[in-house]
Amino acid sequence: xxxxxxxxxxxxxxxxxxxxxxxxxxxxxxxxxxxxxxxxxxxxxxxxxxxxxxxxxxxxxxxxxxxxxxxxxxxxxxxxxxxxxxxxxxxxxxxxxxxxxxxxxxxxxxxxxxxxxxxxxxxxxxxxxxxxxxxxxxxxxxxxxxxxxxxxxxxxxxxxxxxxxxxxxxxxxxxxxxxxxxxxxxxxxxxxxxxxxxxxxxxxxxxxxxxxxxxxxxxxxxxxxxxxxxxxxxxxxxxxxxxxxxxxxxxxxxxxxxxxxxxxxxxxxxxxxxxxxxxxxxxxxxxxxxxxxxxxxxxxxxxxxxxxxxxxxxxxxxxxxxxxxxxxxxxxxxxxxxxxxxxxxxxxxxxxxxxxxxxxxxxxxxxxxxxxxxxxxxxxxxxxxxxxxxxxxxxxxxxxxxxxxxxxxxxxxxxxxxxxxxxxxxxxxxxxxxxxxxxxxxxxxxxxxxxxxxxxxxxxxxxxxxxxxxxxxxxxxxxxxxxxxxxxxxxxxxxxxxxxxxxxxxxxxxxxxxxxxxxxxxxxxxxxxxxxxxxxxxxxxxxxxxxxxxxxxxxxxxxxxxxxxxxxxxxxxxxxxxxxxxxxxxxxxxxxxxxxxxxxxxxxxxxxxxxxxxxxxxxxxxxxxxxxxxxxxxxxxxxxxxxxxxxxxxxxxxxxxxxxxxxxxxxxxxxxxxxxxxxxxxxxxxxxxxxxxxxxxxxxxxxxxxxxxxxxxxxxxxxxxxxxxx
Length: 726
Hints:
By secondary structure, the protein is α+β, with helices and mostly antiparallel strands. Among the domains are: about 80-110 and about 455-720, Rossmann fold (3-Layer(aba) Sandwich); about 115-275, Methylamine Dehydrogenase, Chain H, CATH 2.130.10. The chain has 11 helices and 38 strands. An 8-stranded mixed β-sheet has the order 31-32-34-33-35-36-37-38, sandwiched between helices. A hairpin with a 5-residue loop joins β5 (about 140-145) and β6. α3 (about 105-115) crosses α11 (about 700-720). The longest helix is centred in the last third of the chain and has 19 residues, at about 700-720. It comes from Rhizobium changzhiense.
């Protein structure tokens, strides 16, 4: 009952959001208003470690652009000067962070509230269920099988793989009969994967080892003879891990054979920078291939695996629209389709017909379709209605059939179902409810809790409301605000957003942010343009040459928080991951007066060279191409590294990254931090926190997440004036 790979999930393997799990603080001051203490900025300038400044200048269309810290792009594993610079910065930052008074309080809170059961991907095989489980302080999830009698047995436990918990269990799939599980191993935060195979009955690994997988799904052949996966060629000796990646391709691995015998299934040699991935329909008959240049738009091809020739048939090619397969009913393939600015609809195509004629099943609605799934003889479709989830039912002919009642204002993280089986599952979470697995009977509409986590935090004290504000150009933008019930007066507020690649930020449970709320602060999640809350048009309005709209939305949100007296004038902190880190850097440069503290994590900070590293070329469609003059001018106008403004008082800034991040390479953060420390920006600190054996966030062990989160929250509390209880 694993859902068919979708284009959305294909893109999300690249664009990671913030780490959301669950946490609350242990003890806080009495009263309904958060206590605000004076930030008391330092009275004398901080003397930062020295960073060499070179005279590198590059010309773009007649414009000379200095790049004095390009040398920080060196690989610290082979570049001793870069490694030494990191070590000095790390020691400088550690000394400062260890003195923060609220750090231990936040750390204890995070440790306590990680102690709950988190269930991940779920797959059914006959009368058995496979799923991931992470309990308490476990660094990595374990893979569990639940037998028919309800007994659980651990199949894979990554705790035995490394002492520091940095070797992680990632993508996995069980064969359709449950005989085997193929699973990917991630080491030290890297995006590279090694795939291994477990014999479920024996509880032992087979001899199968597949290396150099990356940005991959695992899709088993219907007969269990092997699986499809995606990989790059083995890197040549001496080639830096940060180098650009080319020739991504789909292969088939047959169980019991060496990887050298794997069969090439699909590749695009004429377009070597493309990403290619494949998934199978629930009946195993059709392989659906996505081939993408930019993580948003993809060609869609289908292979009928019952045919001897197995030649890919192109369904969608070279279009600006967005297509994603749902599954099949016989020879009819169902897809979601977004054409131009539409909010998506559900269509079908008969693969038995010689021509690909798409027929509308569920037309575009007044809300944004985020995903659809075939379960039993129904379609379960998730919609965003003003950035809030709603799940609707449709018959297979597209006629409406009611809704699925959800517990409240929250997020549907995943839906699991398959054609012909009335049993489905979905995972739901909100600010006041950790991820909970619900079993749903498609025929009767009845739902029940299948796995409910126990948590010691008093989440009933959290209130969530939705507000709307006007951005610079008058656009109405939604925002969710979470704080303790009965809170009076302005309180220190942590604002966050993402606004890129069509990714959405609905309200959900956050292990990092809950302690801030329960200490008396507020959290604001801003649904800026560039995200997908209102469909493709909302994404396009914050993409490419319109990227400034994302930043204008965040600036307007910070202004609204102050004007509406949710936050005091000097008590707003801003936080974001990855593309959200870019937003933090850009917004702080443009309006440093709005923020007391800034927390850019694994951010894209050099917008003129992002495409030079690893998979950065895949982001050209999102941000623009620096070698095109119009795009160059736009990118230069907001690139965080290039727009630090000396002479203006900046907020306190804690830049965080992972030394092994080969998605957004840490050089982005290194160069940005060097530019900050070199400029006269006032007395507040600008610091760099670098995690060893950690990457972009995926697979990061719980212990590292807790330590990093405690540092970030304590830093924000220090400079917003949030008084942290013991």
